[in-house]
Design a protein that fits this description.
GO biological process, one term (chain A): signal transduction
Shape of chain B: elongated
Number of strands of chain A: 31
Strand content of chain A: 35-45%
Strand order of the largest sheet of chain B: 1-2-4-3
Low-confidence stretches of chain A: 1-9, 131-136
InterPro entries (chain A): G-protein_beta_1-5, WD40/YVTN_repeat-like_dom_sf, WD40_PAC1, WD40_repeat_CS, WD40_repeat_dom_sf, WD40_rpt
Mean pLDDT of chain B: 77
Radius of gyration of chain B: 36 Å
Structural class of chain B: mainly alpha
Protein name (chain A): Guanine nucleotide binding protein (G protein), beta 5b
Shape of chain A: globular
Number of helices of chain B: 21
Radius of gyration of chain A: 23 Å
Helix content of chain B: 55-70%
Number of strands of chain B: 4
Distance between the termini of chain A: 46 Å
Family (chain A): Belongs to the WD repeat G protein beta family.
Low-confidence stretches of chain B: 188-225, 409-414, 441-452
Number of helices of chain A: 3
Structural class of chain A: mainly beta
Subunit structure (chain A): May interact with RGS9; this interaction stabilizes both proteins and increases RGS9 GTPase-activating protein (GAP) activity, hence accelerating the deactivation of D(2) dopamine receptor-mediated signaling.
Largest sheet of chain A: 4 strands, antiparallel
Oligomer: heterodimer
Strand order of the largest sheet of chain A: 4-31-30-29
């Protein structure tokens, strides 16, 4: 039985319609006013066309969505989990923290592995670090560095964030050298940079931004090579496809959509919209035939690119908080998810069940990446540390 | 930006409502707190046990979920109210009234807070804690012009509460206190706070438009065996996945023994068995491993078809190289590989050749794509399968190292020294210098500027 409300709420005449009702204390242009809930809703609804109400638009888009699902379901084949019943179940997993990296004075926001499988670069609320069992700090003139990436050669790192730019820093051998001096501004967006990644070489960078676009840049000249428009809200994440042709990538955004793009033409070739909230992270399945996504709706989902549909949802009633980052183990059998409730959940990709839950971080897990040779994965958190798990 | 605490509240509230279900929820009783009896309370133990039963989870996870509910203000402790933590013992807890739920998004204004602190100050003279005293003084300065109103409201509310039963009064005080602990925490603690920012909501018209686009543009090609392809892939790579199968001799992150990495570098003379096996899984695996590519090149040289791989590599260089050097590189590739009488002529079909020559007039990074694809599939369908059947490859398999999986070290407390890996930048520079020296025909000279 829940408590009654004993307090006197503000109850009186609405400033707008003058009816005596329970009032909501809201601020309009820093002025506190008392509107009843109906008037507040009316205010929020300004912006519709004639004969249009939120309701009619909603119903139309719902009808379209159902039609879409029907078409997709017609091509539906056996569910992944049913077929996977014959697969051997996984045994007990012992994954523990093997290293804890302290040294960031602030929330860790992003990290990336070097191809040498042993180094990582991580970025935080203040500045990015490069670890080599651990050294090097570069101070950037912006406060939130939300994206960082290691160049394939290991000789440079790229990072950016609220400064709307992506800059490349060549890594020198002299620890005392001021890396910030050699920095090269490559990408320019009109809103914050959410993710960045080098393509197969040190010469090109792919970025995603809060301005709703992704872009491909030439590092040497800073020239924009291709831009990708199609998201209707901030783009939060991206991942390059490990395919033979190497020409596509996937991005996820606040419009709940995951889009697959052709890097040559700039076109969106596939789109998936089954998440119920912002998509914070996307990662390709190792074969390149599918990708996983993690969202604020507390689920991870697997999308098959050839069948053009979602094939699996990884969720549990006891998991309430959103996923910030996902990555696959080397064979693609395991999916690791870093969550905003400070935990990491390990999923059996084929069977759809949770294999393990890992505790250790003391604040939300913001980033998670498996090492290039699959021997470990690294998680970064708002508790100022990074952990290596194996 | 990424503080979508709002989205979580409905789910948390679902849990809370389920907990209070008269039949299936937690059984609540009166709890004693010093000399007072608080109605409708439960113990920390009750909460953990209920969560474990309802969601079929272990105690550790149930404690974690319950703790989150406390931190977000849905359940508050009666003993030590400032410590927002779930204790799995007989400590008493209560549900917060929905009026105070964080999802209600009352602005938690300064005025409200000032009234609360004033009430507390009047009730227990000088009993405000340090940070509360600070806040009180700050507010007194900041909204001094409304202070009469504040004091009046505080007195009115206290008078109204005196007319209630003692138990109700205590409940109300606890609720209010818990609410303000969440909304005005003492330090920058890790309790998530309400974000005042609201992300722009997606307009429905845009949503409808993109739904229509999806209907029109989707490609309905079906791969009939799509679930089994995932199963096959995972099975094939099972023994190669260190997380699933361990990695011989041992996982360096666990045992601090870096043999595994030493055996798998790009310059090792004898690759490991697992590595050589992997090259047979798919052509891309062979090409993306620098050592695999090297060995494949050796084979192609014997077959006099090495120019194919060289061409493919040159095309990759164009696609991923600097923008400014594209025209120059394209010309070089044409001269070396495509022009009639070229030294490393590659066999591209006439249609592709025609298209490529057309594109050469305006060289861009994709101009060689078609030709590159053609040669790639040529190698994949022809040279690659023959390579896997060749003596060269079979010898590699036979000679490959297969280290034994070591058990944990006999002396588990002996710490191995951890060494840094070589800096890739240093390695790259050394290689460059080696190259320079070789071209100059002189022994390697380390210039003073780069010596470590």
């Amino acid at each position: 039985m829940c408590d009654q409300t004993f307090l006197a709420i503000t109850f009186g005449p609405c400033d707008n319609c003058s009816e005596t009702k329970p009032l909501m204390n809201i601020y309009v242009k820093n002025e506190p006013i008392n509107y009843c809930s109906l008037c507040v809703e009316r205010m929020a609804c300004q912006g519709l066309g004639p004969n249009e109400t939120l309701a009619t638009l909603k119903t139309e888009s719902e009808t379209l969505k159902t039609k879409l699902e029907e078409e997709r379901a017609k091509l539906h084949d056996a569910e992944l989990h049913q077929v996977a019943e014959k697969v051997e179940a996984l045994g007990q997993f012992i994954i523990k923290t093997r290293r804890t990296l302290k040294g960031h004075g602030n929330k860790v926001l992003c990290m990336d592995w070097c191809k040498d499988k042993r180094r990582i670069v991580s970025s935080s609320q203040v500045r990015p670090f490069r670890w080599r069992r651990h050294e090097h700090a570069v101070t950037m003139p912006c406060t939130w560095v939300m994206a960082c990436a290691y160049a394939p050669s290991g000789c440079a790192v790229a990072c950016g964030g609220l400064d709307n730019k992506c800059s490349v820093y060549p890594l020198s051998l002299d620890k005392n050298e001021n890396l910030a001096a050699k920095k090269k501004s490559v990408a320019m967006h009109t809103n914050y940079l959410s993710a960045c990644s080098f393509t197969n070489s040190d010469m090109q960078i792919l970025t995603s931004s809060g301005d709703g676009t992704c872009a491909l840049w030439d590092v040497e000249s800073g020239q924009l090579l291709q831009s990708f428009h199609g998201h209707s809200a901030d783009v939060l994440c991206l991942d390059l496809a490990p395919s033979e042709t190497g020409n596509t990538f996937v991005s996820g955004g606040c419009d709940k959509k995951a889009n697959v793009w052709d890097m040559r033409s700039g076109q969106c070739i596939q789109s998936f919209e089954s998440h119920e909230s912002d998509i914070n992270s996307v990662r390709y399945y190792p074969s390149g035939d599918a990708f996983a996504s993690g969202s604020d709706d507390a689920t991870c989902r697997l999308f098959d690119l050839r069948a053009d549909r979602e094939v699996s949802v990884y969720s549990k009633d006891s998991i309430i908080f959103g996923v910030s980052s996902v990555d696959f183990s080397l064979s693609g059998r395991l999916l690791f998810g870093g969550y905003n409730d400070y935990t990491i959940n390990v999923w059996d990709v084929l069977k759809g069940t949770r294999v393990s839950i890992l505790f250790g971080h003391e604040n939300r897990v913001s980033t998670l990446r498996v090492s290039p040779d699959g021997t470990a994965f690294c998680s970064g958190s708002w508790d100022h540390t990074l952990r290596i798990w194996a | 930006m990424i503080m979508h605490i709002f989205r979580v509240f409905p789910q948390m509230e679902q849990v809370i409502v389920a907990m209070q279900d008269p039949d299936l929820g937690i059984k609540m009783k009166n709890q004693r707190l010093l000399i007072t009896v608080i109605p409708h309370a439960m113990t920390g133990n009750d909460i953990v046990e209920w969560l474990m039963k309802k969601y079929s989870i272990m105690e550790e996870e149930a404690l974690h979920v319950g703790d989150l509910l406390v931190r977000h203000g849905y359940i508050y402790p009666l003993k030590e109210p400032r410590n927002l933590v779930l204790r799995p013992d007989e400590s008493p807890y209560r549900f917060q009234t929905p009026y105070f739920w964080s999802s209600q998004q009352w602005p938690a204004s300064e005025l409200d807070y000032a009234i609360y602190l004033t009430k507390k100050n009047i009730r227990k003279q000088g009993q405000l804690i340090d940070y509360e005293k600070e806040n009180y003084n700050l507010l007194h300065k900041r909204i001094n012009h409304t202070w009469d109103f504040v004091v009046m409201q505080a007195k009115e509310q206290l008078r109204a509460s005196k007319q209630r039963r003692k138990a109700d009064r205590i409940v109300l005080e606890c609720q209010e206190q818990a609410y303000w602990l969440i909304n005005r925490p003492p330090v920058e603690c890790l309790t998530p706070r309400l974000s005042q920012r609201d992300r722009g909501k997606q307009s429905n018209t845009k949503c409808e438009h993109s739904s229509r686009m999806s209907l029109m543009h989707s490609d309905w090609s079906l791969a009939v065996t799509f679930p089994s392809s995932f199963i096959k892939y995972s099975e094939q790579y099972f023994s190669h996945d260190p997380m699933m199968h361990g990695c011989p001799p041992s996982n360096p992150w666990i045992t601090d023994d870096i043999t595994h990495w030493a055996l798998n570098t790009n310059t090792v003379s004898t690759p490991t068995k697992l590595r050589v096996e992997r090259w047979s899984f798919r052509f891309m695996e062979l090409l993306s491993d620098p050592l695999g590519r090297l060995k494949f090149m050796e084979y192609l040289e014997k077959e006099f078809s090495a120019e194919n791989l060289c061409f493919w590599e040159a095309c990759e260089d164009i696609r991923h190289g600097e923008n400014s050097r594209i025209p120059q590189k394209v010309q070089e590739v044409y001269k070396q590989f495509l022009a009639p009488g070229a030294s490393k002529w590659v066999n591209v079909d006439s249609k592709t050749m025609e298209k490529t020559l057309e594109g050469l007039r305006r060289p861009n990074r994709f101009v060689m794509d078609d030709a590159q694809m053609h040669i790639y599939f040529l190698m994949k369908k022809d040279s690659y399968p023959r390579y896997l059947k060749s003596d060269l490859y079979k010898n590699l398999l036979v000679k490959a190292i297969a280290p034994q999986e070591t058990k944990r070290s006999v002396f588990p407390f002996m710490r191995r020294h951890r060494h840094s890996s070589p800096n890739p930048a240093l390695v790259a520079q050394a290689l460059e210098e080696d190259g320079k020296a070789k071209r100059l025909g002189s022994p390697r000279i380390t210039s003073p500027a780069t010596s470590p």
